[in-house]
Amino acid sequence: MKLLKWLSVTDRFYKIYLDKQLAPFGINSSQHMFLIKICRSPGILQDSLMDMFYVHPSNIVRTIAALEKQGMITRSPSTKDKRTCNLYPTDRALSVIDEVQAVCEKTEALLLQGINKADQELFLKLLTQAGKNITAELHIERTEEEFND
């Protein structure tokens, strides 16, 4: 049960830390991944975010709506599939995205502090395998590329 305990502790406290670091940009720890992806891939389909982030569609809709309300993104109906939208970053998002990315990198460095490079790579490999194990058990199919993204 130590693994579950420390996964939970790490998850809870890195989110608190990240929320504090991201607050000046008007976003939080549940929004940063989406904003980065949208800024790096303007026009991305909203539906494609489900496969990237392993979250329920209602969470994506809620997060996208919040980012839109905060003036970070705009939605445009897809010309290829009217059931979904293309997502675009606003000038506001583009003006802060490099700093948001830097906060995320700083947070990762903090989490891996005191762990040598070889062990960091092993840790990521093992954590990825753990993710594969649980998604397979839940019959959630993912490609190898999705796990490496």
What's the total number of strands? 3
Residue-averaged pLDDT: 92
CATH structural class of the largest domain: Mainly Alpha
CATH fold-level assignment of the largest domain: Arc Repressor Mutant, subunit A
How would you describe the overall organization of this protein?
- By secondary structure, the chain is mainly alpha-helical.
- It has two domains: 2-111, Arc Repressor Mutant, subunit A (Orthogonal Bundle); 112-149.
- It contains seven helices and three strands.
- It has helices spanning 2-22, 32-40, 48-53, 57-69, 91-111, 117-137, 144-148, and strands spanning 44-45, 73-77, 85-89.
- Strands 1-3-2 form a three-stranded antiparallel beta sheet.
- α1 (2-22) runs antiparallel to α5 (91-111) and α2 (32-40) packs across α5 (91-111).
- The longest helix is centred in the first third of the chain and has 21 residues, at 2-22.
- The two termini are 28 Å apart.
- 15% of the residues are buried.
What distinguishing features does this structure have?
64% helix; three-stranded antiparallel beta sheet; Arc Repressor Mutant, subunit A; mainly alpha; 2 domains; 149 residues
Q: How is this structure best summarized?
A:
The chain has helices at 2-22, 32-40, 48-53, 57-69, 91-111, 117-137, 144-148; strands at 44-45, 73-77, 85-89. It is mainly alpha-helical and 149 residues long.
